[in-house]
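Page 42, continued from yesterday. The earlier attempt failed because a stray header line got pasted into the input along with the sequence. Redoing it now with the clean sequence only.
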Amino acid sequence: GATSGLGRAAAAALARRGARVMLGVRNVEAGARVAAAIEAETGCAPGTITVGPPLDLASNESVRSFAKDVVGKCPRLDLLVNNAGVNFVPKAFTPEGVGVIAQACGADFVRRGAFLPQALCPLLQKLGDPAATVSDTAGDVLAAIAEVGGFVHPPESDGGNNRVSCEGPVSRLVAANADYVVDMLSRHLRHLDDHPGAARFFAAVLGRHTGAARRTLPLLHEPVRRALDSMGIDARRKNWRHAGTFLGCLREVSDATEAEARALLEAANKAVDDIRPLHDLIEEMERVRSEHFDDEDTEEEGAAAAARMEASMRGVIDASAHSDRAKSVDIPAIIVEWNRRVRHESSLSRLVDGVLSSAAPLLESADPRVRLAAAEVCSASLGAIAACDACSAPETAVYDTVKRLHPHDVPQTHGDNERPVRLLPRVHQLWPHLMMSLGHRLGPDILPEPFKASLELLRRCAEVSGGDFIARRMSTDAWPQLARVLKVGVKHADSESLVKRMETLYLGADGDTFFDDVRPDVDEDGLGGGKRGRETAGSAPQKTETVRRAIMKTLADIGASERSRMALRDVAAAAVSVVAPFAVTSGSDGKSSPGPSAAPSPVLISLARDAVKSLATVAPDAVWTALAVNATGHSGAPTPAAPRWTGRLGAGLPTLPSFRDIMPVHRAGSAITREEAEACLDLLVECGIAIRR
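This time it went through. Structure tokens are written below.
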């Protein structure tokens, strides 16, 4: 209250009488202006009126900090003026006071009264505060309230639900009161200009501290939609400050969706196992019917044929080994659970589809932080959609079995607005944005961390699509860009015209304007250099090394997995000619080091060898040819042994020519050293496609 009214007048009166005055204010800048004005009015010496640190009387931590500063600066305190006040004072408590009230009043007050509806949302907003002291205090208070309210242990009604039993008390507290928490969150997100802390509020509800994302998924459709709207093209520039926070929230939503979808997949597989006896019995009855009855006989003989068929089917049921277990199947319960799961899976897939559609364009953002977060969100969203898509097969099996028994009792699988999202069309939709982030000529500059995140997204695309779907695209779109980075490296140059073109396509901002004082380094190939254009050329080799390691690791990971291996089908032959030199180079004199940069490090060489071995699982002939040429490139290097027929099979059969006859020594002047030739042979042996003599 020292900046206006009675408080300002009291400070001025004390200064006229020669007192040294310290003002306690919330806004230090406003307090400094008032102090200067009082000194000018009273004519006192400069420094007579001082301003302490920010003082918020609603926070005990702020009061303690102010008191500590006063004790340190003033040897004694003669007068304290308590002047802060307003005409109407609402009921307000500090976070610590809220925790004390909960502990004092007990569990009934916390769980049954109006305490939680009034206190929980403000505490969650404090939990998202950027100040560590405030957020940590709010977290401790929430944990204390959860303990007092009995949220420490899962309720008995949850039984053996593993999802609930592994959650923390704060998560159960938020999930139990999610209705009004999400309602308040939605209200704030609808009016983001009036509630600038809404993004942090959203992050606090879904964050690691609460872990309530999975439990609140059914209620998150509107908050997620509001967050996605704020990152749309129309609102992206206005809400750029919230982009990182919202992307973090969407990552939590995607991770929670994937976990929930995997739990639904387990339930669907269990339903298939439960209904299998009934399925086997139906198959047995259908087989007997097709062998002994046909439609023409049934139409001619009418009721007699139908009676014989019914008697025959009863005989099959009585004699079948599946009869007893089939009778124990609770078909109504299976239908109800199937309907619940299918609708939930469809809802989850549509929720995360919106996340993927909004995050994909941000892969082209010129802000590396946005690009990194967007790649992580897209990767998590693809995993969630893949998990939802995997539920389709077992759910269809359950539906077909039950539909054959009760064709009129099974509800329609999906309405017009409830159809689940399919995976492959979403990979197709994501692909152009991903290619722009992997060194495309018109794409953003290459920085190691965002580039590695995009490579991880590429690996996830190969994994979830089974590899075959993107095999041709890998050859025509992705590999030319990756090969250029491996050969040329990450260079530093400037292209103002390209920057100007990028301004018209800009998809994310880290300031009030697009490229005010920060311009990316982009060379003529679209290969960006350093950190927002402020690095020296000396940092390029380190970035090149990091990026090359990431590419090698991605190739090795894709080839090592059976689910993604076929993505390298069309690119393996071309890739091995680029990757192999990194795996076998000595780099001793710089002549054989690939690319214009320094010799590869041992880590890069090891990763390149892993990549070659992965490529050998897809295209062994191409790997053998590329390595064998160098393995025989030095006259003093050992060569692989030629295959020989053994045992009876080899009697009288001609022997194969020696390896040297097939691969003669290179002409004079070859750059292949003996060490590199031996390394090629060792790599051939490690790939399992050659034998050392």
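Notes: Confidence is low (pLDDT under 50) at residues 86-90, 156-166, 493-539, 588-592.
Reminder to self: strip header lines before submitting.
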